Amino acid sequence: MDPVDFRMKNILRVGGHTTCDQVLDSSVGIEKCLTGVAAASEWAKHREPVRVGTKVRGWGVGCAYHGNSTSRSTPDWSAASLMIHEDGSLTYRTGICEIGQGSPFGHAKIVAEIIGASLNDIRIEQPDTDSTPDSKPTHGSRGLMMGGTAAADAAIKLRERMVRVAADMLGCPEAQVELRDSQAYNRKKPAAKIPFAEVAEQMHIRGENPASYGFYTSPQRFFNPETGLGHNYAVYTFAASVAEVEVDTETGQIEVTKIWPAMDVGKAIDPLIIDGQIHGAISHGIGFAIMENLQLKNGVVTTTGFKDYVIPSALDTPEIDDTIIVEEAYKHAAFGAKGVGEPSILSIVPAVVNAIHHATGLRFSTIPITPDRMHKALKEAGKC
Amino acid sequence: MLKPLTGFDLLRPPTLVGALEMMSTLDSTMPIAGGTDIVPTFKDLGSKPVHLIDLGLIEELNGVMEEDGKILLGPTTTHAQILASKLIEEAAPALHDAARWIGSVQIRNRGTIGGNLCNASPAADSAPPLLVHGAEAHICSLEEGHWIPLQEFFKGPKMTVLEKNEILGGIRFPSVKGAGSSFQRIGRRKGFTLSVVNAAVYAERDGEALREVRIALGSVAPTPIRAPSVENKIRGRKMSEELVEEAAAACGEVAKPIDDVRGTAEYRRDMVGVLVKRAMREAWRRAGGEL
Q1: By the CB < 8 Å criterion, does B270 face chain A?
Q2: Tens of pLDDT along B86-130?
Q3: Does A35 reach chain B within 8 Å, measured CB to CB?
Q4: Which ipTM was obtained for this model?
Q5: Residues A98, A209: one domain?
Q6: Residue A80 gets which letter from DSSP?
Q7: Is A355 helix (H, G, I), strand (E, B) or coil?
Q8: Domain total for chain B?
Q9: Are residues A334 and A362 in the same domain?
Q10: What crossing angle do the helices spanning A371-380 and A348-360 adopt, rounded to 10°?
């Protein structure tokens, strides 16, 4: 059966059960991801491997889903704090760390959207475990989903006070106040506007608390370690990818030549950051599938540096098609956003390995499929 | 954790004689050119002080030139210089091929041909091309220098014939009109990686026959090696796909590779055949032959 058709029969849909018997009630975007990458890659046209000289080109598809949050249904929460200063600028604090992934910047965008502040006016403070609100760990693809929702809670609370003061200053009902570009407007008379600096100054003078604390707790989950069944995660991110590879059947060398990625992110808070995560994960995934090989001798690691432990370089990065972003919102998170960090690597490895199978007819149960492993398998199958 | 670099004195003599005097008189000397192989080893030398003799200011040691039918290569010529040299591209295409894939752009800008040879890695990419072009190495000391065939320069992994007071002063090889050569390698990614195995083939054509052929293999023995038994078997014969297959199979017998983190012995032996085939075909085509 065609690999995409096979997956279309088996993928999760709303009302479906996960392998842990959890019923998914919403935010299940895998069908759109799979349909999207199949169309973008012209899957139906690539059903036969193509030989060019010593190389064979093949196409493979991979699907993935990944929970957002700490595993085994550990209680999960996140906190954040937000403060507006007398000059109208804001300080945002979260325990979610910036580790190159961009989550805190995503929080700032959520805050900016709710408060109507210019992004440039929001300073993200480096976390300090002594004083920063507890946002639990920066892991489990939870940084944006959990942390960003706490940020939204803090922003909504601050916004109420800002609107209250601004309405009085503008002489209009609260419902007519609009906050935009770090200014407060009367929606009925847009010419009348007050900069946030003045709103903030009045908040201080009138005793409206200029700081707010946001807090978000994940819906309760349960997991039975005896049976492996339960409601593991409140929500899952879904992804699908198609990979195109070329296998040199003389040398066993594999080149990933193109990837078509798709992901159900709930809501794209920052499409550029999503692309960054996915492009990085494609490189990681290629390393995982065909290069990165931690070797041991008598229990001692022999690949002790990057000279011997080879990871993909820029030259090994394939052409990457435009990311297909699917937005099946998560009802409990700010703007419906879900995490993209870990989910983005998961579909790459099976897509690459399946493409290798398509090209060569060979199945591997061990990764990485290094040139010597590929060559050995081809030799044993009489294919080189 | 990163270890601190060992303490060292960097000496920068402007002349070759100056460098050789330092090599003869100072303790714990080590010549340095691009430093791309030496600097990473400093971390393992502890605090032992070293006199580093930088050869970078000595003009006569740098550059590519042709003289009396021979190509002369200064040891401090960088891989980037070799890559940019039209003379090398025409006279020694295999060396030009190798320079393209050594290290990364940054390494090719710093790293030198002399350094690559003196580091004496069995996987050194510049060695097989020079071996097949019949290169010689100039051994310099305060006494009169002498030329030796490059295959005698390598003693074992990371070992050369150079004595404490000697440096590699130059490399030369004949420039032969109409000859072709090719270098092939297998790395574990596209760039910036050591060769798992590499090979070079040099061919001169006499009509349809291989008037002269030389084969060198890397990363299949303690040093880069020539394959004279194979060369003798195919020299003078009519070029054909069958001859290519025969040479490749025979090279697989010559190779004595080992298993290591970069690849298995079996893989290396099989790949010697593949690379020799590819290099032989390309060298033949570059010599103007058809196949």
Answers
A1: yes
A2: 999 999 999 999 999 999 999 999 999 999 999 999 999 999 999
A3: no
A4: 0.92
A5: yes
A6: E
A7: helix
A8: 2
A9: yes
A10: 30
